[in-house]
Amino acid sequence: MNVQEAINKLNELELQEFAYGHAMGILSYDDETTAPRGSRIPRGKTMGVLSELSYKLSTGDEAMRLLDQLKEHADELSEEDRRRVELRDKRTREMKAIPVEEYVAYSELINESSNVWREAKNRSDYKMFEPYLGKIIETQKRFAGLVRPDMDPYDYCLDQYEEGLTQEKCEEFFKTLREHIVPLLERVRSAPPIDTSFLSTPFPISDQRELSRKLMEIMNLPKDNCVIGEVEHPFTTGFSKYDVRITTHYYEDAFLSSMYSVIHEGGHALYDLHSDDRFCFTSLEGGISMGVHESQSRFYENIIGRSREFVGLIYPELIRLCPKLAAHSVDQLWRAANVAEPSLIRTEADELTYPLHIMVRYEMEKAMIKGDVNTADLPGMWNGLYKEYLGIDVPDDKNGILQDSHWSGGGIGYFPSYALGSAYGAQLLAKMREDFDVREAVRSNQLIKVNNWLEDKIWKYGSLYKPAELMEKAFGGPFDPKYYTDYLERKYTEVYGL
Amino acid sequence: MNVQEAINKLNELELQEFAYGHAMGILSYDDETTAPRGSRIPRGKTMGVLSELSYKLSTGDEAMRLLDQLKEHADELSEEDRRRVELRDKRTREMKAIPVEEYVAYSELINESSNVWREAKNRSDYKMFEPYLGKIIETQKRFAGLVRPDMDPYDYCLDQYEEGLTQEKCEEFFKTLREHIVPLLERVRSAPPIDTSFLSTPFPISDQRELSRKLMEIMNLPKDNCVIGEVEHPFTTGFSKYDVRITTHYYEDAFLSSMYSVIHEGGHALYDLHSDDRFCFTSLEGGISMGVHESQSRFYENIIGRSREFVGLIYPELIRLCPKLAAHSVDQLWRAANVAEPSLIRTEADELTYPLHIMVRYEMEKAMIKGDVNTADLPGMWNGLYKEYLGIDVPDDKNGILQDSHWSGGGIGYFPSYALGSAYGAQLLAKMREDFDVREAVRSNQLIKVNNWLEDKIWKYGSLYKPAELMEKAFGGPFDPKYYTDYLERKYTEVYGL
Description:
2 copies of one chain form a homodimer.
Chain A: H1 3-33, H2 40-59, H3 61-72, H4 79-97, H5 100-123, H6 126-147, H7 153-161, H8 167-190, H9 205-218, E1 226-230, E2 236-240, E3 243-248, H10 255-273, H11 290-304, H12 308-321, H13 330-336, H14 354-370, H15 378-390, H16 416-435, H17 438-443, H18 447-457, H19 467-475, H20 482-496
Parallel strand pairs in A: 1-3
Antiparallel strand pairs in A: 2-3
């Protein structure tokens, strides 16, 4: 087999892996959006079978022989193909370290656990979810030990979502954020309060659906490749650049909730929709990491979406759909959309206090994986950290430890990437401004300029580069959280007239 | 390997086949209900890969050795396991006769063709769909020749949907129907017309959704295992007895359309939801044939749903949701729901003229498979047959040859099972009446009695028996279309007071 034949084989193998991932992705999406409760039984069976078959395909003799051959000829490969081989090498080494039965049992556990979490959250009953969380933590620790016995287990978890991220980096990053956010938040809280009462003006859900369509149009999300679904907890799932699904949840008396959710998920979708064509159905298609993904979603949600210019752009549509809002000016709406106030729910948190929510979860995860805390004591730890970091009391587990879906789906190590993504976004903004007037582009409904810039710097590369490498190329230098703290300082000074 | 080990292997193999079928089923369901247009590209790839892998699994050396071993030990197997072996033997023989590349190419053609048909129907542009239909016909003929060179190709098509059904049986069956329906329809048409104008009373779609929920409740469709989706062309898809999806389409000015669609699809769903537990995830789960399936759906839609008692049962709910309907009595509504009148669209046709729509399709399919007609001439043939059988002019292809999705999905030979199913249903009714007062059960909202009877005679058996065998057991004797023609005669005499 010559190198070209080996690449052809690789293409075929990756297409098969894509197919399994696509099928399992659709099963999960269907679960979240449509499926009846009883479907968990057949879906559990199917997920078990497909993950086993997919595992065997990726780690079987044929795939491993192909990998060895490609590695031997690494210097004859194109940059892209070398990267594919590198990614495969890393992934298959990880997979082979985990026995197939454990891999399958884990995927069945996750299917079950997501359903139990949903029910537990509805009932605000942590005890119901606790044994599943316990098993997930144990499995994550065990997998970390099997795959990277040389690595700290929580560092391994972080690395799963943002290659190269470690606790050391997180500690330093969060320390910088705390040093800026805590005093800034104090100043904000001593400023005259901003009126937000009109944000609960009833906005019929059918009209919010129309608002979503308008937002997708403004963001240049192509209708033929991106649809919006309704779920309890919004998320985005990209099956390929031809088919990305965003989701939202409408609350009649909180229209900003869905509006910013759509913009956030739309940011994720744009990233997935713009991988270079040549990466289609290969391991290079789609976003490289959760940190980079969140940099795009949070960039759109906060930096673009909560800017005075964007609020001004969407304002005529808002008052058309909900005429009562016309009693308030663009300026009032913009300030109200940027109120900073410690609160219970991460996904509803403002830009300034948001990182504090992440820090709570970071401390929780660290303790869970280190084994410093018993699962029975986790709600107490959660509530204590909310008191310490945000100064608020958590009334129940529904509004506390059960609020997020991540852990129930095995996502331990994911949260820090949200904060990192926000910081990436602020540094991207600074760079973007060197090339064109971003405020003017938003004001004049030319978000296509923002899209084109991000496509050129980030999106088109898919998974070709490691996250830090990709971001450094885009920044033209190293990552520096100062851009983020400066941005927050500037923004909140303006919003509150400090 | 002893027999028990072989059965364990068979269970494992069938579970894997179930998983592939489930995944492909969800992909199709998602396509029909949710997916953006562009999704056809990745879905085509994934369907191609999964159908190839599934084909190789079912026909590979290991599966064939297992089958041989089980056949050798057939006399040591239970009735169920013997039937599974028989079904597998038939199915794998069919699959092995078709080269894998052709099998995969065909599944990709179907994915593409369904999308093209949808578009062609919207535009009423038969030319757009014609090349796909041509390829589907050619492929069906080729597969028939490969699998059963001893059999007439259209008989092979019929047998795919109703094992044992042949053109000879169809001709005789349709002849009997024509002999009764044509004169009965003439008598009906000479009777005083029934007022149907109020059937277009505007009925808001949100209220129709509530009506659907009520209908599902009356039919005892379990919410945890059955949800309703909204699509252009209603269908039912059962993934397992734990998860069955029905669908409908709401028209604000034709509430009966969705109402009877929900009852029809609900009948399919009940059948799939009540296979015996021990058949779960094996080839015996779910309905045996399309004829038997249609016997259940059309039994609920017409025999139950269009009975005077059912209309009386749903009437209070109808006038609660749409108060204007209260100007008309139960009797008026019942008559209006049973008006017999030649019309263009099969799915909207009344019970009496419905078989004539089927006969048109039967003649078309026979000619297509025999090669008696060029694809370019099919719309002309369709329109000619509508004139001949129903006496009406077809204005365009959207309301003509493009109205049904079946052919675009490769379903040639399916249609006759609708008419056969109606006749099965009438004979089941006669038998059911020997055991309890069916009218009284419906009148008193005790459809559970009907369900229990059908579960006991039909549903619980899944695919354990061949269709004709199953029906004869339920009938306690041979199939006789006289029950159907007697039923029609009785019903229309009553509706029109002949």
